[in-house]
Amino acid sequence: MFKMWQEIYDRRELLWIMVTRNLRIRYKNSALGFLWSLLTPLCMILVYSIFAHILRFNQGRPDYLAFLIVGLVVWQFLATTLSDSLHTVLGSANLVKKTAFPRIILPLATVTANFINFLLTLVVLVAYLLLTHGSCGALAWLPVALLTHFALCFGAGALIAASNVFFRDTEHILGVATLAWFFLTPVFYAADLQWTMLPEPFRNCIYLNPMTGIIGMYRHAFMAESLPGMGGLLVSCAVSWAVFAIGLGVFKRAQVRFADEM
How far apart, in Å, do the first and last CA atoms of the chain sit? Predict the structure, then answer.
């Protein structure tokens, strides 16, 4: 593992080139270009504010819109990374076949580019919360949430990138799995809803979905929502880092056959 990180560090210039390439491709031929990184969350806030007002879907809490927006923004980073990771390796077939470089740079560049967009989205989110609520929550938890979130996205992205090289049905399976994962994650509703539906000895099982704990940390950081119990939080963090380790391990073992499968 140390050798892999050393190789990435040695090729950091290549990594940055790929990150900037991914960012440019996202806004290629767009009149507003990179400005869309800021406009997209603003538009999302506007759309969902209208949606929540018309349907009166507020779960009896006055800050429901902020609650919802935080969950959606956090989820979007994962969903976008999973989608982009499908063609991370396949889309660079010529590079993989003809150039010697650490292949793990491909999914790392994808998740890093999306992470930069995510950070810009958080700037808009914080500005919105300050304007509407006058304050944020316990921002000291934000680095923990960001690091764990990044690890989950990187591991899952590497796993999907490798899988799609050998099993082209991965794209179709991912679409269904991501939708199911979204509705199992407390984005539109509070984690307490799942908590109360389970018998007491099994309630921490909801944190086996790592996004449950991650979103809980973000909501605590931005809205001063109650932090998930430490036991559940540790479960979500452990699952996130397990996905990170498994994804990198699978990718490392599979990369030697990438060129043969393309």
Answer: 26
251 within a domain of the structure (yes/no): yes
Nearest residue to 236 (alpha-carbon basis) of 174, 194, 173: 194
Q: Is residue 18 part of a domain?
A: no
Q: Is residue 13 part of a domain?
A: no
pTM for the structure as a whole: 0.88
Nearest CA among 218, 237, 209, 193 for reference residue 69: 218
* pLDDT by residue, tens only, the chain of 262 residues: 677 778 788 888 888 888 888 877 776 655 555 566 666 767 777 777 777 666 566 556 677 888 888 998 999 999 999 999 998 988 877 777 777 778 899 999 999 999 998 998 898 888 888 887 766 667 788 999 999 999 999 999 999 999 998 888 888 899 999 999 999 999 888 887 776 777 776 777 889 999 999 999 999 999 877 787 788 899 999 999 999 999 999 999 988 888 776 6
Question: 224's torsion region: left (phi>0), alpha (psi -120 to 50) or beta?
Answer: left
Domain count, the chain: 1
Domain range spanning residue 92?
32-261
User: 222 — phi, psi (to 5°)?
Assistant: -95, -30
Separation between Cα atoms, residue 220 and residue 232, nearest integer Å: 14
